[in-house]
Amino acid sequence: MVIPELNTFSVVSVDFGEEIDDFTADIYMDIGEAHSEGGETFHLEVTSPKRLERILKEHPDEVEIGRGLFIAVDYNIHVIERQVERLIKACKRSTWTEVSQALSCYFYDEKAI
Question: Residue 43 and residue 111: Cα distance in Å, rounded?
Fold first, then answer.
């Protein structure tokens, strides 16, 4: 059984609007097999409901896709990282290819970045 592990969790950028509940953040993560070298890079965007609403109103003929998108009321990086770790733990599979495919349900993998 291949057990994935979060190696790095990096907030690349954060953009706050005029109000505290209007934000978006880009996060990159390196995830690899537990107790092994290497891994893959995955990307995640965290957005507040207010920012998501604004994006959708500015582009009414577009649709935001849920993969790689977390929606959070508060920008609390510890809560976000804990949720990421819970999802990673749920992705253990028989092979790394299967793990990577399972992780890609939640995050954009390095091929899609």
Answer: 10
Please tell me the least confidently modeled range out of 48-52, 55-59, 71-75. 55-59
State pLDDT tens for residues 71-111.
999 999 999 999 999 999 999 999 999 999 999 999 998 76
CA-to-CA dists, residue 94 to 3, 90, 97, angstroms: 9, 13, 9
CA–CA dist 4, 92 (Å, integer): 6
Residue whose C-alpha is closest to residue 9's, from 43, 48, 36, 39: 43
3-state secondary structure of 100: helix
- Of 98, 62, 92, residue with least CA distance to 1: 92
Q: What is the dihedral sign for C-alpha 38, 113, 111, 44?
A: positive
pTM of the model: 0.87
